[in-house]
TrEMBL record, chains A, B, C:
GO MF annotations, alphabetized: ATP binding; hydroxyethylthiazole kinase activity; magnesium ion binding
Protein name: Hydroxyethylthiazole kinase
One Pfam family linked to the record: HK
Cofactor entry: Mg(2+)
Annotated gene: thiM
Organism: Marvinbryantia formatexigens DSM 14469
Enzyme Commission number(s) from the entry: 2.7.1.50
Length: 274, 274, 274
């Protein structure tokens, strides 16, 4: 099932419009190509509606946002909604500033999202109207543990119910939930948090997965999250073998996404459905 | 001959001003350094004329353009013309939005280009006033095949005649043409289209080549295109040997440009002159 | 002593706010993670004061500056001063345009810096009101040699006296000086100047070092400079062994920063105190 999601990406080469931060944009483009999608980046109000119209899906990421790009996010999001394109929101840094929090809220009010991704602090900020985001990392107080897992799952389902979006909460354990069902995913390695952009890259890749599988948003998002974590595990094995560091790890991670096929994903995905 | 073009770059260390997109800008800077040039990136209207004045050549790339940078492209382009500096235009995404198409047209009206590079759809958009660009990739309908090669060469020569620029059309087969003569280049590997920025990087490198060889624009551009394709072939061999993916391929590609010398280019360039 | 500076970074995970250029921003984020810090990038006037407030230190880099980001640099710098956060300035390209030179001067007038970094031409531009910066590289006329070393050290100490900042002049020989004391550092390899961003990355890393060691700015900056140069040496050994080029070198460099510990730094640092 998850493998089929991946294969649909490779088969359909979904074209994804990205309005994203300038920190990790190159990695997002390369991981989209690695997974079988095709990226286009564009953030000017003068073209975003037109660009999103020629694409199949839209990825909005609020890192390094500014007044100019916020307008473009809203315009592109509405256009994508009109056209019935899947739209994903990455909450990077929500809670770290009022501008990010308010932009995220405004986007949620004005745009219908298929998927919303963030760490637990970012998602809480958006869902509960406040949070304790420490920069772009989740706050320790928000950490998902065995003790809190059930309540986080219930929280994710409720937030999905409220927004209509699949909710993706990433961390040591990842949760992918719609209002009825949650994937609790154990793939991944800590080194993924020692590079910039593993969250942004996951969101970009998820955009390709949901664009290629618009009728199965939950499964598509879960497949993307498992794929990313699994490729992180594979990349970590290479990193250790090569005695390399985080920069090479980033390359290995994208490389593993490039090499991953449906069978490998089926075999390597580690999740429970709750 | 082509080898000499490369050697002139290494000898003269041409300083190239780049107004380019934020997706592949780091790769463009590193490939400029790899080939023997020196990059400076600057896009604010308050400094672009001054920056271009201290450089030897100018690279304008319309990816992720916006109203602010469009003004800077025009101002820098005119200044470079005044100073007699080679100027190159990368048409990334022309045809995908009216903003990109119109900006490309306006640039062509107001700035004299030494070289214009794009895929066949982008070049057709600019030359014929319309096109079928699919995002930033060439449309299948526009594909250059053995059957269409002669007509594409004639088209490129005619567009060079009209614009006064050397025309570089990249794809599985690359065409580099002035009004009289065309290089048909067979170097390169498909993996080059599985990373972001191989086009942008080629344009940046070509900027260094034409800046170091201003009296031989056609040969300089052809040398850069052969060099890029040849390095792609070498990088692909490394990628396969290492069982790596597209992200490492990007590094290997720039690495090979770093290692390439004139003799290697002479031996590896595969082209016909038509 | 220098090793302790490094260990404090790993222990405290300083959160660093970066207002930096879009060319090397990804490398800056990854090297901050590699050395044990945590990066956040943000440049909109609507959030920079708030973002810098949740961080421990601020890194201002004037590459690819524009009117919008200049305002943000000033606002964030003043806020960081209010809060007593260490602030570092990277002078990339000062002297190459009036906009960069004047922005650097204005920043120096309105913001109190803990550390100022540049090549010799950039620092002279700021200190003497004029310079001979060639793009983003130091001018040959400004080169620090055995003959000029003493006068450059005196110049650095005097500029530190005047500004209250630790002055970091990087080149084949690096000088890190306050008004009383200078580290003359011999670590490093020429390949570091064949990638984009080795200066920017050093400044970002120095931001983490001074944020984690606010009472020992001189030693912290010297430790960061030694660490960067030493990691360059280690990366160069890997590059040669792998027969790689500048792009892989960039990854190896960040990898070595990731792997460096206090003992390795103590053993590998090569400097004299003058």
């Amino acid at each position: 099932m998850l493998g089929k999601m991946l294969e649909n990406v490779r088969e359909k080469t979904p074209l994804v419009h990205n309005i994203t931060n300038y920190v990790t944009v190159n990695d997002c483009a390369n991981i989209l190509l690695a997974c079988g999608g095709s990226p286009i980046m564009s953030d000017d109000i003068g073209e975003v509606e037109e660009i999103t119209s020629v694409c199949g899906g839209l990825n909005i990421n609020i890192g390094t946002l500014n007044e100019r790009t916020i307008r473009s996010m809203l315009a592109a999001g509405k256009k994508a909604n009109e056209l019935g394109h899947p739209v994903i929101l990455d909450l990077v840094g929500a809670g770290a500033s009022a501008l990010r929090t308010n932009t995220a809220k405004k986007l949620l009010e004005e745009v219908r999202f298929s998927v919303i991704r963030g760490n637990i602090s970012e998602i809480k900020t958006l869902a509960l109207g406040g949070g304790t985001t420490k920069g772009v990392d989740a706050d320790v107080a928000d950490k998902v543990t065995d003790e809190t897992l059930d309540s986080v799952i219930a929280f994710a389902k409720a937030f999905s119910e409220k927004t209509g979006a699949v909710i993706v909460i990433t961390g040591a354990t990842d949760i992918v939930a719609d209002s009825q069902k949650a994937y609790v995913i154990k793939n991944g390695v800590p080194t993924m948090s020692q590079i910039t952009g593993s969250g942004c890259m996951l969101t970009a890749m998820t955009a390709a997965y949901i664009t290629a599988n618009p009728q199965q948003l939950l499964e598509a998002a879960a497949a993307a999250v498992c794929a990313m974590g699994l490729c992180g595990e594979k990349a970590e094995a290479v990193r250790k073998e090569q005695n390399a560091g985080n920069s090479s790890f980033r390359n290995y991670l994208i490389d593993e996404v490039y090499k991953l096929d449906g069978r490998m994903l089926e075999e390597g995905a580690r999740y429970e459905i709750c």
